Amino acid sequence: MSSCEFESLEKSLESHLPEAELAEMKRILYGKETKKLALPACAVEAAFKRDFELKGYSFEAAQEQLRMPRRIRVGLIQHRIVLPTDVPVVINAMHNRVGEMVKVAAMCGVNIICFQETWTMPFAFCTREKEPWTEFAESAEEGNTTLFCQELAKKYNMVVVSPILEREQLQSTLWNTAVVISNSGNVLGKSRKNHIPRIGDFNESTYYMEGNTGHTVFQTQFGKIAVNICYGRHHPLNWFMYSMNGAEIIFNPSATVGALSEPMWPIEARNAAIANHCFTCAINRVGTELFKSEFTSGDGRKVMWLGSRTPGLSRTRDGLLVVEMDLNLNRQISDKWSFKMTGRHAEYAEELTKAVRHDFRPSIVKE
Amino acid sequence: MSSCEFESLEKSLESHLPEAELAEMKRILYGKETKKLALPACAVEAAFKRDFELKGYSFEAAQEQLRMPRRIRVGLIQHRIVLPTDVPVVINAMHNRVGEMVKVAAMCGVNIICFQETWTMPFAFCTREKEPWTEFAESAEEGNTTLFCQELAKKYNMVVVSPILEREQLQSTLWNTAVVISNSGNVLGKSRKNHIPRIGDFNESTYYMEGNTGHTVFQTQFGKIAVNICYGRHHPLNWFMYSMNGAEIIFNPSATVGALSEPMWPIEARNAAIANHCFTCAINRVGTELFKSEFTSGDGRKVMWLGSRTPGLSRTRDGLLVVEMDLNLNRQISDKWSFKMTGRHAEYAEELTKAVRHDFRPSIVKE
């Protein structure tokens, strides 16, 4: 069986395990079961017609005495590219496809939607080619794609997180950036990818540098959100600092390959949610993208650019995941587990400040 | 099926899944397959006779040109208590059982062995009782248990990590401490539990306080090791700082209950290994411990003090896990993935220093 035929972990477990064992397995692998969310028939039908997967789940918090529930719905979109990589650049190529998926998200009552990393283009940063790929770069504030997202935001009263390849107009610098658009249609701001991979062909640092927007959190009508782009998921301090700035939901739009890091996907975002008492939402693109200059990974083996998975969605099909979450859950979990309160952050600030000095002497005991 | 009958995730998968799907499932869940380690027949026989599980695996690194492989073997021991909790305190109660398990570890060529959290006693810190449990506390440097471990260390030329309840003689302060004994038999030092749970009945802070030994790393003949005790596994900064001080292997001896946190076990230690380019070894005790004063969890429900699992060992039986690891793998992984190099630690030191101030103003953008 090739790995592209393996549709999802859940499907495989569900088709083979006896019921009681399945329940215990799911408890160990996934924790408390998330309830399925009933989605409107019109949305289910529209997703079927447009050939993408649609799934819904909900996280419930306990009823509190003083705070009303803060139930909101988040939508996560994964999709393949729609044009082959050898046709001329079309900036709007993906707009239609994603537009129809957002329409379905709106039917499902989604308040905040997040697209995959550099969603408007093939993920070409692992090739040796710069042209024509950098032509997909746009202004975060005034580019076509931002204008398109502003329309969606206003039309559906939805916060839109739109990760693009950004060209900063003044210096023509490229960045890997998520544009955050308020449900009013205004650009709330942007968050640039903080950590850039330098792994074999995933040496994206020839395209853009480490972001300079720090760990900004965006206060939206539906909660405080932040965007940790792709490789930043490997850095626990990155998640942590978004959380220290108050993020209730941290999005992690990615573009990566199953053969390279798939075993880490179920671990890193979940670990960040556990450690920081917040929601984390991970997205990866799907599909196969072929490039003219076939490329190799850093270790000389060929890389398979294969379909990849978000938890709960197929590893191979376009899809929309709708998640209802009561943001009250964050504080409830924090009050119970106290990882922030017991975090001794001041001590770490001191230790880390010493540890980053060039003349740092590590605390090592020898005989 | 009650959860105590569910012996292990691996066993359940192996008995139900078709071969090809099992392989793909294991790749996604566990990453690259660890090879089984051939263990000597005498050890297998001894473990069988003494009724404990024995398993061996190995992590292989690539052959380098300038460095010889640094293959070492680590042993991890999980066990139940041997005396019921209503008999008089016997400091040495566990010594025999663990002694015979260490003997088998020696047959398997183990260089560094680690026992479970406060291994000499029932894990009573969740009861309301202080007596007689605090009588198990011993000096880290001169207690009976340390003397016993020094003998083992010398006899088997083995580094011994012995987590005990420590009584600091001068101030009669209690600590949750791991004593690290060199293979020469000398006490190399100690590492105290850095983060203390305050979760319902897991409010251990009435017994001991946050440790004051920082993130000391112990340079042994077989590699640089550190000990992150129990609840410290929830704090990514804790793992991180041990690693910043040079740890190649971080042990995580624990005592916790499956119903409470089992879904997190496969995540946190693995995430730490990924993020910090090092080996992490997690141990939990097994068995059922009953206490006179039956206790409830913080949310008013009864807590089941049920068997718990280390990856690869049974959730219910005593066991010894032997793992061969080539420590060269750490630098190889680091050179490939570069999470340290791309970590931007100096920026985090600055940000964190600001974030821990009482007048910190988080970086939040509003419309």
TrEMBL record, chains A, B:
Pathway per the UniProt entry = Amino-acid biosynthesis; beta-alanine biosynthesis
Q: Which domain of life is it from?
A: Eukaryota
Record's catalysed reaction(s) = 3-(carbamoylamino)-2-methylpropanoate + H2O + 2 H(+) = (R)-3-amino-2-methylpropanoate + NH4(+) + CO2; 3-(carbamoylamino)propanoate + H2O + 2 H(+) = beta-alanine + NH4(+) + CO2
Q: Which Gene3D superfamilies match?
A: Carbon-nitrogen hydrolase
User: EC annotation?
Assistant: 3.5.1.6
UniProt KW keywords: Hydrolase
| InterPro entries, alphabetized | Aliph_Amidase/BUP (IPR050345), C-N_Hydrolase (IPR003010), C-N_Hydrolase_sf (IPR036526)
Cited Pfam families: CN_hydrolase
GO biological process entries:
beta-alanine biosynthetic process via 3-ureidopropionate
| GO MF entry, a single one | beta-ureidopropionase activity
Q: Which family does it belong to?
A: Belongs to the carbon-nitrogen hydrolase superfamily. BUP family.
Protein name per the record: Beta-ureidopropionase
